[in-house]
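User: What would this chain look like folded?
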Amino acid sequence: MGLRKIVTIVALPACVCWPAISQTSIETENRPPSLVFKDATGAVVTSVPVDRKYGVPAVMMEISASANTAYVLNGIGKSAQRSISAADIAAGRWSEVMSRDVNGRSLSVINLATGRLVRVINVGAGKQVEMLISQDGRRLFCYTLSAVLQENSPGFAAAHLQKSRGSRVVNVIDTSSNQIIRTFNLLHSPGSALPKARFIESFLSSSPDAKYLLVTFTGFTRNINRPSWQRLALFSVSATRPPIVIDAHKPMIWSMLSENERFLFVASGDRADRSGVVHIVNVETGKIIDTTIDDPGPSTAHHRELSAFLGGTPPSWAGAKQGVWIHTRNGIRFISETGDVGNEISVPGQDKAAALLSLNRALWFVAVPDMKQHSGTLQVVNLKRSSISNYPLSDAPLRLIRLGSSTGLWLLGRQEMRPISETGTLGDRSILLNKPHKRAEADASDADLFLNGEPGETISLGEDRAAILVTSRTGGSVHRVALLNLRQLQLATVITTMSNREKTKIVGGRWLKMAAIAAAEGAAEGAILGGAGLPLNSFDSLNAQLAAAGMPEGLANEILAGQPGGRNLYVLDKDMHKVSVIDTQIGTVVGRIPVDKQVTVIHVSLDGRHLICTGPGFRRELDLERGPLSKS
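Assistant: Here's the prediction, encoded as structure tokens.
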């Protein structure tokens, strides 16, 4: 089971899977910067003050699906010394109560069923605050930093190590009671005093059931680009005991808990060295075993994902022992809880391969493309037997994806999509996406409908249907979406989401903006602001100014959203700021929903009634049953 890393949140997370909210909608307000919770009639029930950054509300929020509760970080200077009482709320004394402590930070706890504030939790003083929700939603980790922060320091939590002035505290909140059940002082915890450093980075992660909190510390003494030391500390949330500490002499690459969560595996290595070390920690006893691995996988950022651990089924020789698979330069090897290392299974071409575990984690599918030959190989690795079966492919694979039912595994290439069984058998038939190469035309079907482009984002629309975004060879937008019939293995239809007239209007509008910028800067004297054109010799300089102004050079790719078993597909166009609604049964655009210019990501709530639109400092839910729908 993997570990989750915390990152800096300046605006609302765009890709978090929030639960369906049937009675409460959440929106941001710019003046004053706040996050408001509204009831079904649109009336504001609760308004939470938040910080402002880069001119927009900087919202930090986590949601516990199990508790149906939202946790919102209150703005600086808006924290209460105590929980706000029902009398304060009824009397509207929010501002008065929240201004009583300008240094402390707190979280507003909102019941999503009613949209009402139920509690304010104080988390201590600190300008920098991060939050991490456990996978099961039962625990919320709130990380508060109080120190002299450096703007140009590496990482979100780099700070001067001044113990008399600074602190780093993690409060563990039980989401069922909204009480702080544990507090960890990372700088002053017994048994984990940190070495000296000028700057320190710290990253948090937790086990899926939140029994353990892991903190990785990286110290910088002289060169802020080259760490001087690295340490991992494991804190027990359920038991009162000193943390378990691992001091790595090489950069840490990856960490993973065993399936029974009794052992923690930590890999460290150096790209200049041909060997690495796996630290095996018994999280109950604190005992640590270090095992050297010869010829480990590369630890560069480009290869790090494929050099990580693989949580597949142990090989037969391991018996009942727990362990993980680690990637090496030429394949994978299994390491058990006792430090035993198995033979290497050779899996070449991992830096370019697409890989996915079977649902029972016994098979590992690796699709290796050969772009020059427009072909590839599917390697099915039986982890228990430590054997490989190779299947030649007539199309270069791009991705391994799951579509339709939970067991639907597909191999996606540029020219076709082919199903794969959970036992590793390639399907006899495929969905033809693009016209095949001449050497394969004899085996192709008589299909006359093709993408005429590259396969982009692909999503499920139920057990038997899927949608695929069509892009250009360079990854740009062509404003077409294809519908797939997974049961009949057919490309059902290709739908255009933007007309040539609309494209011309957008490009023309940008051209006028370029001319206006040039005229204002004096860089394009004689530019015709009526839209006839610009001097060719000024285009490069204007394009540079356009990029500096944050304007896109081309049309943006759309974002797809759908509901399992639902009839409609939603396609966000970030240039027109509209969502095209496609009726998948008739295969056509039936209307458009205007959205705010800040919206960059959309998804449909689990109940299928709301379209959740998010962007920097923005979140809004549109009622799909009563929302605005235009024909333009």
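The helical segments are 86-90, 94-98, 500-521, 539-548. If you want, I can go into more detail on any region.
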